[in-house]
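Here is a typical protein record:
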Amino acid sequence: MRLVMNEPVERMDRPYARRWWALVVLCLSLLIIVMANTALTVAAPDMTQDLGLSSADLQWVIDGYTVPYAALMLLLGAIGDKYSRRGALVLGLVVFGGGAVFGYLADSAATVIAARAVMGVGAALIMPATLSLLAATFPRAERAKAITLWTATAGLAIAAGPLVAGALLKGHGWSSTFLINVPVAAVALVAAFVLVPPSRAAHHERIDYVGGALSVLWVGSLVYMIIEGPHFGWGTKAVTAAVVAGVSLVLFVAWELRHPRPVLDVRRFAHRRFAGSNLAVALFFLAVFGAFYYLTQHLQFVLGYDALQTGVRMLPLAGAVFVGSALTGYLTPRIGMKITVTAGMVGGTAALALLTRIDSASTYGDFVLPLVILGLAIGLALSPCTDAIMGAFPESELGVGGAVNDTSLELGGSLGIALLGSVLANAYSSHLTDATAGSGLPPRALSTAQDSVGAGYAVAQGIGDKARQLAEEAAHAQNARQAAQLKAQADQLAHGARQMADAVGSSFADAVAHTSLVGAVILGVGTVLVGVLLPRKPGAAVAEEHNEEPELVDAGTR
């Protein structure tokens, strides 16, 4: 059967022959999107030192990627549906790769943040395109398996980012971590033209740009509020963002309910399977991103692993994701997604609960079991949810479906880092205050140490360096009295440095335990809500309303 460019889209009699190779390209594209954040977590200390970043600068280096990424996905997904899903993927890879090169060349906080924002725009094009192309390329009988592999790739990227970044940081500066993405993006770009079939909606009316603009406004404002409020205080910026997010969300819902061709039919959220799946994705990534945020810090700062060693020690999580994905591929068709998703969320809650046992004496061995359980939980729960979300959309709206799934993921992840990160910071500061009470250390040093675990160890190191300097001066003193005075001061400072380092380590460990408890409670309550929302029998769900076959537009080479 021959299909010709610019002619009306025809149905495919048989599935696309190279669909599994196309999936490799889509998974490579997903890989760099996730690695862009996880690699940055291990490069952050070197970047902070080299560029002299404040805590606010570092936060926006991380989140400058998140705001455009989350805000633009829904509108760009709809545009991809109408014009070209493969075109959206290709353009996104070009923009993302360009932003990565810009980040490599950046030499200030402002330029790094700008580069991350450009990469965020590219990610907003790529992410919904990967899911929409997957759903359009694979027949329904194979779609769940393909989505399982897509989800497992995200789990791999969580560990691969720190691992590859750590290897680069052994011999290169932090800027080299931006280049991780460039060769992968280049390979995916070329392979997309060869292996990924062109795809767009067969019948797609004029895009609802007003609804799309309102979605950009409310999601962008909401993510900005989530970032700004917990980290920098609920001042004018955060409150204004909250008001804008609330008003624009109300306007968005009202507009979409009345529009004959909405960018997103919000009535879908009345269906229990769809609503429950989105809630599960958001809650899971709230827990996963939040836990990843503080676990990598603990491994690096408290346990003293370098970037590469940290990446290696996250591998049990990635391996467990693959095992969980294989399990859900076998179990979900037999026992239903309600059981596998709730079981996965129970597992995630248990993993966080195990982390509440972390204390100052904990070693890496205490983290292995929680990491394995968390990885199994991710693999078990997320694939069925993504499949349910994508199945709720007709073939003409697959890009929007991918954007909805990814927006839930990104909102959950942003909220996890902001909320659990704020809990972590407050708990660390409070525990450090108690641990150093009556220590006699300078108030200014204590105040600086409360800013973060990295700052705390930097203060301890600074005090230790001063102690060593005084000890050297004592060794070369002109008289015994002066030498004794200098040695006494050096001993006092050395004791203070050890005391500060011990207090920082124990305070952060206690903060990890406290934050894990908060995360476990949130995910536990969410597990109950998702269990109530998800229907026992999937046959009645929205996903079964659409039975169209994948749509492909040939580029003349098929």
